[in-house]
Amino acid sequence: MCWIFAYNGKKNAIPLLVEGLRTLExxxxxxxxxxxxxEKKEIFLEKATGKVSNLAxxxxxxxxxxxxxxxxxxxxxxxxxxxxxxxxxHPHVSENERFYVVHNGIIENYMGIKNILEKKYHFYGxxxxxxxxxxxxxxxxxxxxxxxxxxxxxxxxxxxIVVMDKENPSTIIGAKLGxxxxxxxxxxxxxxxxxxxxxxxxxxxxxxxEDGETVVITDGKKEIYSLGERIIKTSExxxxxxxxxxxxxxxxxxxxxxxxxxxVIKNVCKWRIDFEKKEIINETLESLGDHEIKRIEIIASGSxxxxxxxxxxxxxxxxxIPTEVRISSEFLYDTFLPHKKTLYIFISQSGETADVRECxxxxxxxxxLTFGIVNVVGSTIARMCDLGLYSHAGVEVGVASTKNIxxxxxxxxxxxxxxxxxxxxxIHQCKTIIEELWNLPDTFELQLQQANTYKxxxxxYAKYPSMFFxxxxxxxxxxxxxSLKLKELSxxxxxxxxxxxxxxxxxALIDKNTPSFVLNLKGIMQEKTISNVREIQARxxxxxxxxxxxxxxxxxxxxxxxxxxxxxxxxxxxxxxIWIMSVEIAKTLWRDVDKPQNLAKSVxxx
Length: 606
Ligand code: F6R
Prior knowledge:
Blueprint: E1 3-9, H1 13-24, E2 31-37, E3 43-49, H2 52-61, E4 71-77, E5 92-93, E6 99-107, H3 110-117, H4 130-139, H5 144-154, E7 157-165, E8 171-177, E9 182-186, E10 189-193, E11 205-208, E12 213-218, E13 221-226, E14 229-231, E15 236-237, H6 253-259, H7 261-269, E16 273-274, E17 279-280, H8 283-287, E18 295-300, H9 302-317, E19 323-327, H10 328-331, E20 342-348, H11 354-365, E21 369-374, H12 380-384, E22 387-390, H13 403-424, H14 427-449, H15 451-461, E23 466-471, H16 476-490, E24 493-498, E25 516-520, H17 526-537, E26 543-548, E27 558-562, H18 575-588
Parallel strand pairs: 18-19, 18-20, 20-21, 21-22, 23-24, 23-25, 25-26, 26-27
Antiparallel strand pairs: 1-4, 1-10, 2-3, 2-4, 5-6, 6-7, 7-8, 8-12, 9-10, 9-11, 11-15, 12-13, 13-14, 16-17
The structure holds fructose -6-phosphate (F6R).
Residues 301-304, 348-350, 353, 356, 400-401, 484-485, 488, 602-603 line the site of fructose -6-phosphate.
């Protein structure tokens, strides 16, 4: 997505802006740009297509980069309107070259505004964002705050904007609706960013702006306004962490994050499970007992949606609660039948995904009970939900989600266990599953030690143009996650089907050039899956089996063995090998593992 960063304070803005963009780059990397202004009302402007490193080298070559600019705005773009060109790269500028703007979001009525403004102004690009700069020039009433407020009233859609005025270099103004905006304060000044991670190394405390709020930063001091009135918001202390900028000994953040999985499952359970007593001890889960929950709807996108599907098996099988999982972008435009005894669960790593956020707004507007499973602390979705548990995966920089999914699985299983106990008092069976959760970190460690075996197998399959991922029952959404990860990281075409569904059409695509990853674990329709494997092999299709250790290996062309667990815990086991193999295939094909083409970490537009 597009992400913004801005600074106003004592130091030279340029290096701070470039560094800020580097930390945000994983969220959108089609192009990047910065604009800064100094006391003499001189502007520094650089833009580059491609990665932030391209911008950084342009900035480095610019002889003015070392001058002092006390205010500046910066942007990294994920193209929505218009191609990846310098013209479409932010910051955008008004025709009189006075107002500079960066924008994250989508202005839905931009064509209508543009049609009117085109009669007076020349448009150099195709973005919806450019109209904001022109609109500010057109609406300017001598006061930037009142002008920005007027402009915001004219725009429909989602936005976080920061505006800089060449004639008033001591001030920048930020405003938001829908898209995230964090304002951080440090010793050297005030920062605006889309994401707290971008400022955690420079700011000590922060506030998150709510929709309709505006921040005015003058000479390193901030003032926040809501509906034209100045308001005081309490700042929160920033939890400084360096893990985000450091890949350690790994080639990529994605690999580092896969190796953090044993810690993630420990963090998910910490303070929520008493492993000695084998009991769930979480107050939030406990408080769900105060509500009569007859149905559950889970709303999410992408990998979080597939995690939701795994969770729905747990909620149905253990807690006995009818559970439906909905793709957020579909749920939003489907007929919504609010139900007071339904618990609405929103799953999101970033906590900013626009499709999910808008569904949450819709559900909240009907006063239904909402529960968030979010990774990024303090993010919009986390703040909006009535109740929730963090997935506690830590910062995830790799655009493809990995370790966070383990956190999501962990929270969903805890939720299902806790609702199960409340209904059926199946304490003994619950204790057995808790024991298995206790063993999971060691299991993951052992899998990580097998990484070279997985990589050797992966290398053999990098040459194939297309693959299948197959699984049944609770392993079907796990296969879907595997398929998404392979295509996202390697750009190899991959499809996921329920293994039993193959014969209803997709089998037509199976031949010697289309291998299949088949998830076939003990206790989950093993015999039926074996019959499906034979159907593939009868058509010369290769099969990579992900199977329970000790089972018959002779069936498969290649196989990954995972330890035996109960069927309930089995979805945790195939992911580490599949992700390591997907990364290896991607590396063999020279893909950018951390920043796959066309993608962005956090999708803040619908
Ligand atoms: C896939 C991936 C995406 C996200 C999806 C939802 O690896 O990362 O499919 O899962 O964009 O994002 P969140 O979870 O942030 O709402």
